[in-house]
């Protein structure tokens, strides 16, 4: 039930009355550039068609009232008493956005939000960022004219970092708010400049297969923060503000610690892979897909062996997809759970799906979920129905 009409109905049934509007924010898939965002590097995500809807209405008081189609009851918070740590669970994300908006000087009206999600949680597809972004859009547009999307992305990230306490980068919120259909979003996480890169695999008879490995990805787990700290240490040892400042892996020989050297090598080479993918998509889109496939698989090996954040189900999905003829495949997102992205020729989609399902069945693992992944539009107000 993630249609605008469904969200309006949820609003009516839980709160009574009519919503003033319905907003939508998508989840994301990252084509290339993993763990590069907080190293001030490049990322190349695109928005999914699947996302989170919120039917919302202003309230006359200073309360933010939230309900979710997936949870019973409702959560009510006082907008004038919001503080990090004061709200827990799923409601911390929208409450955190209200807090971060106010901290940035925006008017935050009392509001009721009825929320539903079409993004599987824990699949590494940024359902949390979608929740933050749909809240940011709904609250600001209930209050007045539309706000700058880059500012909203920064506010949504601040909610996640400082209110929820997850030390993520800026990629997911940017993808959800800035993406355009038929494009991937090239974001320079140092300057925060972004551009739209035409990305239409179907036009070249290629397909993107998204494979939810059903191992839950939890960003709050400590490994993400540990990787961040390792990257910062590596940059410090080399005397640069961030790993983005390195372009040649030979410079990494100056790091004695082999673990830190591997972490840094992943970041430096993944930044290069982002720019290579963009080069192929812009200069030779007709020939790009085998090359992008090759780079995807290279990235998976880097994430598995240098950054050490892959997990057995992802490795098996990648191996099975490649053996069945995929052009390339890799784990996506923060790691240790979530999804794999495979790039396949149109006629290989069914054999690849079957091979991955079979590889999981042979190991008695929970069957993977296959999802559509079409580069889609970013967050928006959904029709007035
Ligand atoms: C998660 C984080 F939220 C992003 O900021 C990014 O670091 C990603 O992991 C890894 O590329 O999605």
Relevant terms:
385 residues, binds 2-deoxy-2-fluoro-alpha-D-galactopyranose, 4-stranded antiparallel sheet, single chain, 6-stranded mixed sheet, alpha+beta
Gist of the model:
The chain is an alpha+beta fold and 385 residues long. It has helices at residues 4-15, 92-103, 127-143, 149-164, 171-178, 222-238, 258-283, 288-306, 312-323, 349-362, and strands spanning 21-30, 42-43, 45-58, 63-68, 75-78, 111-117, 183-188, 194-198, 206-212, 328-331, 339-345, 369-372, 380-382.
Largest sheet: 6 strands, mixed
Fraction in beta strands: 15-25%
Please give the number of β-strands.
13
The parts where pLDDT drops under 50 for at least 5 residues are none
Distance N terminus to C terminus? 15 Å
Instruction: State the helix count.
Output: 10
- What is the structural class? alpha+beta
Net shape: globular
Spatial extent as radius of gyration: 21 Å
Bound molecules: 2-deoxy-2-fluoro-alpha-D-galactopyranose
What does the average pLDDT come to? 96
Strands of the largest sheet, in order across it?
A: 5-4-6-3-1-13
Q: Note the run of SSEs as H and E.
A: HEEEEEHEHHHEEEHHHHEEHEE
Helix content: 25-40%
Write structural notes for this entry.
This protein has 385 residues and is of the alpha+beta class. Helices cover 40% and strands 21% of the residues. The protein has helices at residues 4-15, 92-103, 127-143, 149-164, 171-178, 222-238, 258-283, 288-306, 312-323, 349-362; strands spanning 21-30, 42-43, 45-58, 63-68, 75-78, 111-117, 183-188, 194-198, 206-212, 328-331, 339-345, 369-372, 380-382. A six-stranded mixed β-sheet has the order 5-4-6-3-1-13, with helices on both faces. It has a four-stranded antiparallel β-sheet with strand order 10-11-9-12. The chain has a three-stranded antiparallel β-sheet with strand order 2-7-8, with helices on both faces. The model has no long low-confidence stretch (mean pLDDT 96). The structure holds 2-deoxy-2-fluoro-alpha-D-galactopyranose. Residues 30, 34-35, 37-38, 126, 168-169, 171-172, 219, 333-334 line the site of 2-deoxy-2-fluoro-alpha-D-galactopyranose.
């Amino acid at each position: 039930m993630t249609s605008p009409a469904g969200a309006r109905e949820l609003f009516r049934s839980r709160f009574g009355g009519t919503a003033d509007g319905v907003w939508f924010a998508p989840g994301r898939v990252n084509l290339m550039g993993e763990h590069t965002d907080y190293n001030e590097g490049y990322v190349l995500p695109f928005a999914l068609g699947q996302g989170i809807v919120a039917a919302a209405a202003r309230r006359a008081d200073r309360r933010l009232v939230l309900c979710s189609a997936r949870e019973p009851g409702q959560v009510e918070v006082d907008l004038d008493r919001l503080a990090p740590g004061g709200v827990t669970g799923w409601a911390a994300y929208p409450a955190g956005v209200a807090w971060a908006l106010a901290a940035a000087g925006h008017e935050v009206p009392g509001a009721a939000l009825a929320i539903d999600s079409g993004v599987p949680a824990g699949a590494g597809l940024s359902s949390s960022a979608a929740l933050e972004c749909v809240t940011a859009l709904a609250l600001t547009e209930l209050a007045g004219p539309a706000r700058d999307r880059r500012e909203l992305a920064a506010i949504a990230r601040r909610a996640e970092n400082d209110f929820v306490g997850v030390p993520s980068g800026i990629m997911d919120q940017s993808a959800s708010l800035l993406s355009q259909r038929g494009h991937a979003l090239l974001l320079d996480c140092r300057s925060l400049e972004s551009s739209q890169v035409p990305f239409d695999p179907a036009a070249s008879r290629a397909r993107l297969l998204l494979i939810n490995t059903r191992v839950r990805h939890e960003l709050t787990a400590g490994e993400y923060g540990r990787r961040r700290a390792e990257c910062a240490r590596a940059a410090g040892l080399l005397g640069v503000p961030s790993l983005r400042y390195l372009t040649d892996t030979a410079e990494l020989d100056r790091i004695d610690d082999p673990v830190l050297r591997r972490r840094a090598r992943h970041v430096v080479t993944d930044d290069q892979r982002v720019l290579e993918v963009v080069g192929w998509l812009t200069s030779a889109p007709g020939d790009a897909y085998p090359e992008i496939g090759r780079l995807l698989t290279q990235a998976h090996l880097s994430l598995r062996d240098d950054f050490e954040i892959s997990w057995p189900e992802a490795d098996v999905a990648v191996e099975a997809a490649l053996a069945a003829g995929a052009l390339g495949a890799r784990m996506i997102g923060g790691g240790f759970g979530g999804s794999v992205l495979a790039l396949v020729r149109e006629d290989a989609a069914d054999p690849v799906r079957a091979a991955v399902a079979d590889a999981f069945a042979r190991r008695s693992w929970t069957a993977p979920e296959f999802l559509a992944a079409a580069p889609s539009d970013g967050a928006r107000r959904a029709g007035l129905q």
